[in-house]
Amino acid sequence: MKINKLLKIVFTGHIDHGKSSLIGRLLYDTNSFPSGKYESIKKICESQGKEFEFAFLLDALEEEQSQGITIDISQIAFKSKNRDYVIIDAPGHKEFLKNMITGAARADAAVLLIDAKEGIREQSNRHIYLLKLLGIKKIIVVINKMDLIEYDFKVFLEIKEKYQEFLKSIDIEPVAYIPVSAKFGDNIAIRSRKIKEYSDKTLLECLDSIKLEKEETNKQLRFCVQDVYKFDERRIIAGRIENGKLSEGDEIVFLPHNQVIKVKTIENWPKIKNSQFAIKGESIGITLSDQIFVERGNIGCRKNEMPFLTDEFEAAVFWLGKKVFETGKKYVLKLATQEISFEVSKIIKIIDSSNLNEINRLESHIEKNETAEIIIK
Asked: 192, 181, 221: which is closest to 307 by C-alpha?
């Protein structure tokens, strides 16, 4: 009987530290492969005269196979005895950080891999810093490829101690540190007999034990309007509830026009019986008690829960653009369904996300893959 909710988990880490192999092994050890998938990939490997790797099951694109790196985001459904999962395999290469962030942004938790032989690398630090910026707090650090160091537990402890120092500096406390071998299945779903010094949970047990925070429906309502549609005689305001709860009969205000109106009905697709309310994360439609002007980008809230309005705020950013991000230049800020012109009025400081050192630069710009604290106006 499954007692935990669906967990969306992203696997991250430096290139070639074994993310895809680890996921493949996890699926294999729990009999979770689609029928015939394992056998067909193994036959392909044999016909090409190369050793089978579990990563091949996920790196399905021809371009990925030829280059030997994960460049896209693979997602696969997975089930244990205790819960359902969506596993996201994000790329580790520096040039595909945008893809990694896209995957991680949808995750509830993360597994970050470090190669036991290579140790902590640039992307090991950068990825976990990005996970922090994305607000992911439940992180498992896996020290992979223990077989390459002959299962030396002292090396595991040294990496753990060194990484713990870095994580402490950015205020992250991992759920666990686990020594594993994806190639041979040590501590993935089955406890390893080769690492006797480690007596804590396997990776699967650790994943199963992660508890998701309950959605709080008593927080301030924020209903972001996506569009307005006309069905038969109904005028439906479609959007997503980013926070709080919305019920039929509620009186809400649409910003920025400050129009107060009552919610007549909650519309779902497909229609759910007695769907008289909706909560955070749900995309819905609503009809109103009267006809008022509402458009994409407007935000619905309660009169006594109005948001703080400002035209200037401080932000932490990670720049992914090919061109530099500079002060005084016009950009477009996308916030939920709203888009608005802005500029960076000040760069407070620029940070090297691989080591957290501050970058001293006379020019007022941020380069690709740099993190910065800025003021947006």
From this structure: 221
Q: Which two tokens stand for residue 320?
A: 């992914």
Residue 246, token pair as written in the block = 């919305």
For residues 248 and 289, is the Cβ–Cβ distance under 8 A? no
Q: Give the CA count within 13 Å in the CB-facing half-sphere of 91.
A: 19
Residue 154's contacts (CB-CB under 8 Å, 6 or more residues apart) are: none
> Where would I find the H helices in 96-170?
97-104, 122-133, 153-169
- Written as one letter, the residue type at 7 is L
Note the pLDDT of residue 72: 47
Rg (CA), the chain: 24
Whether 159 has a pLDDT exceeding 80, the answer reads yes
- Contact between 69 and 15 under an 8 Å Cβ cutoff? The reply is yes
Residues 104, 96: Cα–Cα separation, whole Å: 13
3-state secondary structure of 220: coil
Specify the DSSP class assigned to residue 149: G
CB contact set of 114 (below 8 Å; sequence gap of 6+): 13, 14, 17, 120, 121, 124, 141, 142, 143, 144, 159, 163
The single residue listed with the structure tokens 């140790």 is: 119
pTM for this one? 0.75
pLDDT given at position 69? 43
What tokens were used for 161? 């101690």
- Distance, in Å, from the CA atom of 133 to the CA atom of 369, rounded to the nearest integer, reads 14
Q: Given the structure tokens 């990694």, which residue do they identify?
A: 100
Cβ of 187: how many Cβ atoms within 10 Å?
Answer: 27
Q: Which residues contact 199 (CB under 8 A, 6 or more apart)?
A: none
Tell me if 220 sits within 8 A of 243, measured CB to CB: yes
